[in-house]
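Q: I have 443 residues here and want to know how they pack in 3D. Can you give me a structure?
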Amino acid sequence: MKKTTRRDFLKASGVLTGGAMLGGLPLAQAAHNFTDDTIKIALVGCGGRGTGAAVQALLTKQNVKLVAMADAFRHRLDESYKNITADDLSDVIGVEGSVKSRVEVPEERKYVGFDAYKQAMKHADVVILATPPGFRPAHFSEAIAMGKHVFMEKPVAVDAPGIRKVLEAAEQAKRKKLNVVVGLQRHYQAVYRQWVDMLQNGAIGEIISSRVYWNMGALWVKPRKPGATEMEYQMDNWYYFNWLCGDHIVEQHVHNLDVSNWVKQAYPIRAYGSGGRQVRVGKEYGEIFDHHTIEFEYADGSRMFSQCRQIPGTRDSVTEGFHGTAGNAPFPGRIETRRGHLILDYNSKNDPNPYQVEHDELFEAIAKSEYKFSDAENAAKSTMTAIMGRMATYSGQLIEWEAALNSGIVLGPDKLAWDAMPKVLPGSDGLYPCAVPGVTKAI
C-alpha cells in the first residue's frame, strides 16, 4: 500500500473510529515504579478494532510504547503491524503525536496462536484486548492475574459462564487497584455525559420507558478458503458464530442497551421478545439471527423497548431515547418538557473523538499512578443484558435475570486448536443449525 491509500483504508474501514462492526494500561498502582516513565503496551487481537485501539493508545500524551503483539492468525498480526508503523497517523484522528516512533515490536515479541496472549502480556504494563468477544473472559482474567491495567473492547463475553468469569476478575482488579476501561465509548463522549447526568438528576422526572435501537444493513462476509479447517473458517467469520460473537444483539446492540442501564443506574430483571432469520438465511451467515425485538423490564416496573436488525434496504437507526413523567429525551443531547419546551439542545460538532478520549483519560490516570477506572462490572452486566435478550428471542420464553446469569451453557468448544471442532457444525447441505423459538432451550 502507498502511504495515502493506507491512511484512506484506515479511515474507511472504521479502524480508528470504532466502526459499526467491531475499542490501555500498566502495572498495579502500587507497582508503578518504572526505571523510566515508559508505559509498555501489549496488543492482543490484531484486527481492525485492535489496530485502531493501539494507534489511539500510541497517540496519547503519555510516554507509551507498543512492545508486543498477539493474534491467532499470523497474517492478521502482520497486517496490523504494517498499518500501525506505516507513517505518522496523527492527522487521521486529529491528535498530535508520532505513532511509528512509539512501536518497538521485534520478531521475537510477535506471538501467534490461541495461547499467544499469555506471552505478549508478560512484556507489558497495559494490555489491549480486542479479539472476538468469545475470548475476552479468559484474556481479561489472565491480564488481571498478571497485574496489568486493561483496555478491552465490548462486549466482554458471549455466555453466562463467561460473564461470571469477567465479574470475578473485575473484583480482583478493584482489589489490586488496576484501571480497566471498556470500549463502551459513549461513557467517554461529551454529549452523552451531559445528557445522562441531567436525566439521572431528574430533568424529565421519573423515567417510565426507554427506546434503544441498532438497526442497519448488512455486514462483511468472508468466503471459505480452500483447505481451511472448520475452526479456521469460523474464526475468520467470527461475526456469524455465537461462541465468538454472541449474535449482533450482543456484539453491537450492547452499546444501546448499556445507555439505558446507565441512565437507569440499574439492570433489567427480565426480558421477553422475538427474533429470527428472515433475509440472512444462507450458509455463509452461520447461526445468528438478522433481527431481534425485545421488551426488558426493570425492578421499578419501567420498560426498555429494544430493536436491532441487520437487513439491507431497511431504515437505519442507531440511537436511544427516554420518556419520563415530566418530559422526554428523544435522542442523545436533546431534552424537552412534556409541552415541547427545550431543556437541552446539545451541539456536539466540536467534541473530541470518544474513542480517543477513552485512551487519553486512561493513560493519564496510569501515568499519575491514579486508580480511576473500573468499567468491567458495568460492561459485564450490560453484556449480560444483551445475552438475556438473545436468550429470550432464541427461546421465545420469558427470561429472568437470575436464571440467565446462572446458566451453565458454555458456547465455546472444549478445545482450542486449528484441527478442533466447534460445537456448531454445518449439515450435509452446508447450512448451520440455528435457534428455533419454542424449541430451543436458552438456559
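Q: Anything worth noting?
A: The chain has two domains: 3-187+354-374, 207-324+382-405. The chain is about 30% helix and 20% strand.
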